[in-house]
Design goal:
In chain A, 38% of the residues lie in helices and 25% in strands. Chain A has 250 residues and is of the alpha/beta class. Chain A folds into two domains: 1-81 and 165-250, Rossmann fold (3-Layer(aba) Sandwich), CATH 3.40.50.300; 91-164, no CATH class. In chain A, strand 4 and strand 5 (67-68) form a beta hairpin. In chain A, helix 3 (97-108) runs parallel beside helix 5 (149-162) and helix 4 (124-133) packs across helix 5 (149-162). In chain C, strand 1 and strand 2 form a beta hairpin. The longest helix of chain C has 32 residues, at 4-35. The chains are: A alpha/beta (250), B mainly alpha (359), C mainly alpha (296). Chains in contact: A-B, B-C. The A-B interface holds A 52, 54, 73-75, 78-79, 83-84, 86, 90-95, 98-99, 102-104, 106-108, 111-120, 122, 124, 128, 131-132, 137-140, 148, 159, 162-163 and B 1, 3-4, 202-203, 205-211, 213-214, 216-218, 220-229, 231-232, 235, 239, 281, 355-356.
Chain lengths: 250, 359, 296
């Protein structure tokens, strides 16, 4: 397979007294399917924000495919090959589904500044492919803001895929989904991981999803990695059990 | 799985007239632009010079509003200082015309076209400088900074008496003899505005145009998709500035004078109002708004001096009840009638109607 | 080089202007902090209040001999009316704009500027108005100073203290401050948010009206001074930082004094200097001196 695709060393982030991410160190290999779990407030979203350039790190380094991406602007990181699907659908509400995906595809093609081409003729093949892949083929002209929640999440994933990423970050991809939708979505993610060697890193609260779809699990708590390993290893770990037991008691 | 071609739509299109086909393929702006163009072409046939003169003003300020809408309707930011670029263009042309007039007595045709062209780099440069700072901000801060810069530029023009003649403005601008005829100048203006509008249409329907819309709808997400928001904003800001400067260039020879007020917030406000009245989400919305605004202004000021009160009330009502402007109302009526007609003509499917089965 | 006397006068002028800016900008900042609405028309409403106070002063002068009493009565009347006007504006206009996007909110208050400034023209015409209080000028350090300045500064401090006391020591004030942080929590506590919003808007407008009344004796009224003023208020709020009273205070001092002294050297361009400062702050530090750092 490939070597290290993401390397995080000594990452720290404070928010006005709250130490959200503490001295984080880990490595992601190319082709991995990894889940980050942990109670709310553990720092999962902050970590994603740091990797994608939305927050500035206080200290530490993030290296993607050999390139130092620490504190680089979001759009540069995206162009290097990291894509993100958000937990709360982060789409373009006034554009149609078709326009959403097509514009993302055109951005990936480097056409964002093309002021004289015809938008409806560029990248249509790739747009169609992604729309079909994500199950949105029945409603291309619907305004994205008017989609149902489930469809918005599909569009969310479609947008993330349009960037032709090498590393895909998914923020609670199955939150709010039915059993069937969860199965479909994760099957798609698995397929992408296998066929395209797309490294996936997702946060989840649904343990079934984690155990069925992750080859590696990282448990985050109060900004620190508590346990790291295969799903079984993490499940057996005493500290992990204590944290989750503590969660249930609360 | 071909979804882009809906067979039902293709059949219908063959039946419908060309106006409807234009609507289907280009949205509301298509047929509205066609109708407006026809109206503009025929205007000089009306009796007297007044309609032609008013129409010239409508076209010029309409182009200014179209340029503003690049920033507002397509990119989602509101600039209260856009008039500064309109004014810069107007002054560039005016100063050159005055120079030609003073040195040669009258303006040659070459000089005239040169003067108009000169507005473009001047307004481009101005909007580049202002834009460089403004694009670092969004929302209220963008609005305030653009206002502040606009006023600053106004003050510079107002105070630099030796160069711009300050508050006196530049008077006595005369285009070459052929263009002194109001009808000739009108068709000249119409030609330029139509070309500019076509160019704007091309730009807004390009990938860049959709990048703008992405910034409008969700700036952060656009960044996560690899778009350098600041660079896009600057490109758009300068483009809008150039088109505003072009409109300004046409204004001087038309009014035979320019004044610093062209750079102020009152002028910028006009573009905002016209866009709001006509509809910010349609390409020709601002032009439709220009017709209504200018017509209203001409009519109201004949009876009362309280024009700000009138337009203020109108803006208030529009913002409260019809924020999408006139064209959005028309668009809704049309699509509602279209949906009704389609559901009447189609045999109801076996499946129960649901959100996915809506036409 | 102007002599010390006129410098002193400019200083007083600057201080009183700073006081006015502080009071006006506090209202603006309060409305923005609680409801996230930037009231473009704040200075125009201030001007309406000033004209109203003027008219009441004229009317009441026919019934009472003591000018000070007349002024106080006029201020109370005008402030009361403007408070209710503020409530009405919030209830019927601003309230509809909360779910809307920023440009539309700005346009609504911008339309209010047009409407109210023309209404002033309609009711009061275009001539300048002023009221004159018979006060003996006081001699200070070789120059004559209007003692009313001291009244202003005292009143201004009093109002500022009153505002602080209201926000920090009364139940209602604490609710308002809580609403700035989290309107959801406040409404979850059973307090009706619409009432708070209406009250805050009314309070802001009332505060502006009070300010207008107090400054009336030293300020000739004319059309258009509201536009100058709203720009200065923006500058104050931006320079000081939204949501910071200390910031507003310091920024008011800066803008007030800079403006007053600029009038000495460049009368037409005093506002331009304020613009330059505003531009500089928006470029270098958009969240102001004391605001919270933001990403754009």
């Amino acid at each position: 397979m490939s070597g290290k695709i993401l390397e995080v060393a000594g990452l720290n982030k404070h928010f006005r007294g709250l130490h959200a991410v503490r001295d984080l160190n880990f490595v992601l290999q190319g082709g991995d399917k990894t889940a980050i779990i942990g109670p709310n407030g553990a720092g999962k979203t902050t970590f994603f924000n740091l990797v994608t350039g939305f927050h500035r790190a206080d200290s530490g380094r993030i290296i993607f495919n050999g390139t130092d991406i620490t504190n680089r602007p979001s759009h540069e990181i995206a162009r290097l090959g990291i894509s993100r699907a958000f937990q709360i659908s982060n789409i373009f509400p006034k554009l149609s589904v078709l326009e959403n995906v097509r514009s993302a595809v055109q951005a990936q093609m480097g056409k964002a500044f093309d002021a004289f081409g015809r938008a409806d003729r560029i990248g249509t093949g790739e747009t169609e492919r992604i729309i079909n892949l994500c199950g949105l083929h029945s409603k291309p002209r619907v305004a994205a803001g008017e989609l149902s929640q489930g469809d918005k999440k599909k569009l969310e994933l479609a947008l993330a895929l349009a960037g032709k990423p090498k590393l895909l970050l998914l923020d609670e991809p199955t939150a709010g989904m039915s059993l069937e939708e969860t199965r479909e979505t994760m099957a798609l993610v698995d397929r992408l991981n296998e066929e395209l060697n797309l490294t996936t890193l997702f946060t989840e609260h649904d343990m079934a999803v984690v155990f069925n779809h992750a080859r590696k699990v990282i448990l985050l708590h109060r900004g620190e990695i508590i346990v790291e390993g295969t799903p079984d290893q993490v499940r057996m770990d005493e500290t992990a059990q204590r944290i989750y037991l503590g969660m249930h008691h609360r | 799985m071909p979804f882009i071609q809906d067979p039902g739509l293709v059949d219908e299109a063959k039946k419908a007239g060309w106006l409807t086909r234009l609507y289907r393929r280009r949205g509301l702006s298509g047929p509205v632009a066609a109708v407006l163009l026809l109206g503009f072409l025929l205007t000089p046939l009306l009796p007297g010079k007044f309609p032609t003169i008013v129409a010239t003003e409508i076209l010029i300020v309409g182009l200014f509003a179209l340029s503003f809408n690049l920033i507002y309707g397509y990119m989602g930011q509101i600039s209260f200082g856009h008039g500064a670029f309109f004014g810069l263009g107007a002054y560039a042309t005016a100063l050159l015309l005055r120079y030609f007039q003073m040195s040669a007595g009258e303006v040659s045709y070459f000089g005239f076209f040169l003067a108009i062209l000169a507005a473009l780099p001047v307004s481009a440069f101005g909007s580049l400088i202002v834009g460089f700072f403004c694009i670092r901000l969004t929302g209220i801060y963008f609005a305030m900074l653009s206002l502040a810069f606009g006023e600053l530029l106004f003050y510079i023009v107002f105070s630099w008496y030796s160069f711009t003649k300050g508050d006196d403005g530049i008077q006595g601008l005369m285009p070459p003899p052929f263009f002194q005829n109001s009808t000739h100048y009108y068709y000249f203006t119409l030609a330029i505005v139509v070309m500019a509008a076509l160019l704007l249409w091309r730009i807004t329907e390009s990938p860049f145009g959709y990048t703008l819309r992405m910034l409008r709808d969700n700036r952060n997400r656009a960044a996560f998709l690899g778009i350098n928001a600041r660079r896009v904003m600057l490109m758009n800001f300068v483009t809008a500035g150039i088109f505003a400067g072009l409109a300004g260039a046409l204004w001087g020879p038309f009014q035979r004078s320019v004044s610093p007020a062209l750079l102020g917030w009152a002028e910028s406000g006009k573009a905002v109002f016209m866009t709001l009245i006509g509809g910010a989400y349609f390409l020709v919305g601002p032009m439709a708004g220009s017709i209504i605004y200018t017509g209203l202004n001409a009519y109201v000021t004949r009876y009362t001096v309280f024009w700000p009160l009138t337009i203020g009330l109108i803006i208030l009502l529009i913002v409260l009840f019809v924020p999408g402007g006139l064209l959005s109302v028309i668009d809704q009526r049309i699509s509602r009638r279209g949906t009704e007609r389609e559901s009447r003509e189609r045999i109801p499917p076996e499946a129960a109607p649901g959100p996915e089965n809506e036409a | 080089m102007p002599d010390f006397g006129s410098l002193l006068i400019q200083l007083f002028s600057g201080l009183s202007r700073a006081m006015m800016l502080f009071l006006l900008s506090s209202g603006l900042s309060l409305i923005f902090g609680v409801m996230n609405i930037l009231n473009f028309a704040h200075a125009t409403l201030w001007l309406v209040a000033a004209y109203l106070t003027y008219t009441f002063f004229q009317i009441l002068s026919n019934f009472l001999a003591n000018e000070a009493l007349v002024l106080v009565a006029a201020i109370v009347l005008a402030t009361g009316i403007m408070f209710f006007l503020g409530l009405a504006i919030e209830r019927f206009l601003v309230r509809r704009m909360y779910p809307r996007e920023l440009p539309e909110q700005l346009l609504l208050t911008f339309a209010l500027i047009l409407i109210f400034s023309d209404l002033i023209k309609l009711f009061w015409g275009v001539e300048n108005r002023r009221i004159v209080l018979p006060i003996e000028p006081l001699e200070v350090l070789g120059s004559f100073v209007n003692p009313y300045f001291f009244v202003i500064i005292a009143a201004g401090c009093g109002i500022a203290l009153g505002l602080w006391w209201f926000l920090h020591r009364t139940r209602y004030g604490k609710i308002v401050r809580a609403a700035v942080f989290s309107r959801d929590m406040v409404s979850a506590l059973g307090i009706r948010i619409p009432v708070i919003y209406a009250g805050v808007f009314g309070l802001g407008v009332g505060l502006a009206a009070l300010t207008a009344g107090i400054f009336l004796p030293i300020m000739p009224l004319s059309l258009g001074i509201d536009m100058d003023l709203i720009v200065q208020c923006f500058s104050v709020v931006v320079i000081g930082g939204f949501g910071s009273i200390l910031g507003t205070f310091i920024a008011s001092l800066i803008v007030g004094i800079v403006y007053s002294f600029s009038i000495l050297f460049w009368p037409d361009g005093a506002l331009a200097i304020i613009f330059i400062i505003l531009v500089a702050v928006l470029i270098l530090r958009p969240w102001g001196l004391f605001g919270t750092e933001m990403r754009f």
